[in-house]
Amino acid sequence: MPPQQTTFKTTLAIVAVGIFALIVFGAIWAFFLGPASPVGFGWYLFSFAAGISMIVLPCTFPLAFVIVPLSMGKGVVKGFGVALAFGAGVAIMLSMYGVIAAAVGEVAVGTLGAPLETVKNWLYFVAG
């Protein structure tokens, strides 16, 4: 193996372990050591990371195995464009679902006075 390839793999492994450690320590801080009220930039960052992790859910992970063959053999630029379009589509749709669920929940709980547990169950039912 050439030295550049070994250096790249080592760097990639170190970055992956660092990101994993950041996620683990962030989750420990968020759930056990952080403030009781979820306010601030850290909570937005944690929410973003949680959203990114949604790609490994059973409903979206198999799509990664569809997008890789679609982007292979089409050239670097076209393959990157297909993968970027897929990623943007998933991110936009999941973001829209989140915004709509938050708006419906705010109206149902805040305006109508419905119990939060009932609203949550109905949102799960509609989303499912």
Structural class: mainly alpha
Q: Tell how many strands the DSSP assignment holds.
A: 0
Helix content: over 70%
Rg, nearest Å:
20 Å
Please describe the biggest sheet, giving its number of strands, its sense, and whether it closes into a barrel: none
Instruction: Tell me the strand percentage band.
Output: under 5%
> SSE order, as H and E?
HHHHH
Detailed description of the structure:
There is one protein chain. The protein is 80% helix and 0% strand. It has 128 residues and is an all-alpha fold. Helix 3 runs antiparallel to helix 4. It is flat, with a radius of gyration of 20 Å. The model has no long low-confidence stretch (mean pLDDT 79).
Summarize this structure briefly:
The chain is built from five helices and no strands.
Structural key phrases:
mainly alpha, 128 residues, 0% strand, single chain
Layout of strands and helices, then pairs:
Layout: H1 3-33, H2 41-52, H3 61-71, H4 76-111, H5 116-127
